[in-house]
Amino acid sequence: MQDHKITLFHANWSFCSQMVRVALFELNIKFDERHIKLCDQYAEGENLDKNFLDINPLATVPVIKINNEVIVNSTTIIEEINKRFQSNLCIEEDDSVKSFVKQTTITEGDKFASTIGTIIPVFSAPLIEFMIRKLPLKSIIKIFMKHPRKDRKMIFLSMYFFGVAKKFPNIAIKKFVDELIKFEELLNEDNTYFYNEFSHIDINMMCVFNRLEDLKLSEVITTNKTPLLQRYWKNLQKRDSYKKGILNYYTSKEHKVIKDFYNDAPSPFLKPILVELAQRN
Ligand SMILES: N[C@@H](CCC(=O)N[C@@H](CS)C(=O)NCC(=O)O)C(=O)O
Fold first, then answer.
1. Domain 6-84: assigned CATH number
2. Is the pLDDT at 95 greater than 80, yes or no?
3. Counting runs of H as helices and runs of E as strands, what totals does the chain give?
4. Distance from the Cα of residue 87 to its chain's centroid
5. pTM value > 0.85
6. Closest ligand 1 atom to the C-alpha of 45?
7. Nearest to 121 by CA among 217, 208, 23
8. Distance of alpha carbon 80 from alpha carbon 33, whole angstroms
9. Given the CA of residue 75, which atom of ligand 1 is nearest to it?
C-alpha cells in the first residue's frame, strides 16, 4: 500500500509532463491524473481556467498534489517524489549533477536556446504556431485576457496574428550542435546511461530525444559525430517507462498534427543542422 495519495495535473504532449510521468512509472508510483487541455493546443485552454489557476497561478503543467500539498515545476516534483518515496532516481547531487539536470529541461529563468532543454521549445515553436493558428479567435482572446505570463502571452499572440515562429529554430542551430557535441563528449563508452545507474538526467534526455523524433530531427544523432548519443538514446528507449510515460500518451490528435504539419516531408531544419555538425571536428 502506498502511503501518499498522488494526483498529477498534466498534458499528453507536454515536455515537462512527460518527465514527471516517466519518473512516476520508474518508481512504480500509483497516481490519479487530470489531463489539462493547454491553451496553445486546445480551444478549451483549461490551464487558464480559474480552477487550474487556483492550483498553479503560473498556468503551467505539470503540477502534482501529494496528499493535499501542491508542488509545481517538473524538476522540483521529481526531486520531491524521489525524497518521499526514498528512491535513488536523483543521485547525490553535487553541483555538476544539478547543473546537468537543469540544462536538460525548461528551467525557469534560463534564456531560450541557452541550453539543450530550452532549445527544445525553440525548435518546437513552428509546430506550436501551427496549432495556435488553428484555434478559434475566442481562444486567443482568452489567452489575451487570462494568461498570467506576459512573455508567453506575447509569443502566443504574435504566433496567431503574425506567424512569427517559422524561422525561430535557425537561432538555435549552432548552440544545439555545440550541445550535441558536448553531451557526446560527456558520455562514457562503458555506461548504459549518463551515470552508471538510470537517474533524473536520463529522464530529461529521454524527453529531449523523444521530442526530436516528433520534430523529425532525430537523424541528427545518427551521424559518425555522435555514436555514443545514438547508443544512449537506444538504451533509453528500452525502458518500460518510455512506453508507459511517453508513447502511451500520444493520441490521434498529436499524430494528426505531426502528419498535417510535415506532410511527410523532412524538417527544413534537418539539413542545416547536419551541415553545421559536419563542420565540427
Ligand atoms: N519549468 C516548468 C515549465 C513548465 C511549462 O512550461 N509547461 C508547459 C508545457 S511543457 C506549459 O504548461 N505550457 C502552457 C502555457 O504556458 O500556457 C516545469 O519544469 O514544469
1. 3.40.30.10
2. no
3. 13, 4
4. 23
5. yes
6. 17
7. 208
8. 18
9. 19
Are 241 and 207 a contacting pair, CB within 8 Å? no
Q: Classify residue 78 by burial, with Cβ atoms within 10 Å: 0-12, 13-18, 19+.
A: buried
State the pairing for strand pair 63-66/32-35: unpaired
Q: What letter represents residue 214's amino acid?
A: D
Establish whether residue 38 lines the binding site of ligand 1, counting it when its CB lies within 6 angstroms of any ligand atom.
yes
pLDDT band at 271 (very low <50, low <70, confident <90, very high): very high
Q: What are phi and psi of 150, to 5 degrees?
A: -60, -45
- CA-CA distance, 213 to 257, in Å (whole number)? 14
66 phi and psi, to 5 degrees? Answer: -105, 115
| Closest C-alpha to ligand 1, atom 15 | 60
Ligand 1 atom nearest to CA at 105? 19
CA-CA distance, 137 to 133, in Å (whole number)?
A: 9
List beta partners, residue 63. Answer: 9, 72
Residue 198 CA to ligand 1 centre (angstroms): 24
* Residue-range domain boundaries for the chain: 6-84, 95-278
User: Grid coordinates in use for 169?
Assistant: 529554430
Asked if the model's pLDDT at residue 90 lies above 90, the reply is: no
Nearest to 216 by CA among 278, 271, 159: 271
**Ligand 1 pocket: which of 9, 10, 61, 156 to mutate (most atoms <8 Å of CB)?**
61
* Closest to 107 measured CA to CA, from 130, 74, 156, 139: 74
pLDDT in tens, 206-252: 999 999 999 999 999 999 999 999 999 999 999 999 999 999 999 99
The atom of ligand 1 lying closest to the CA of 143 is 17
Exposure string of 124-138, with b = 16+ CB inside 10 Å and e = fewer, is bbbbbbbbbeebeee
Task: State which amino acid sits at residue 119.
Answer: I
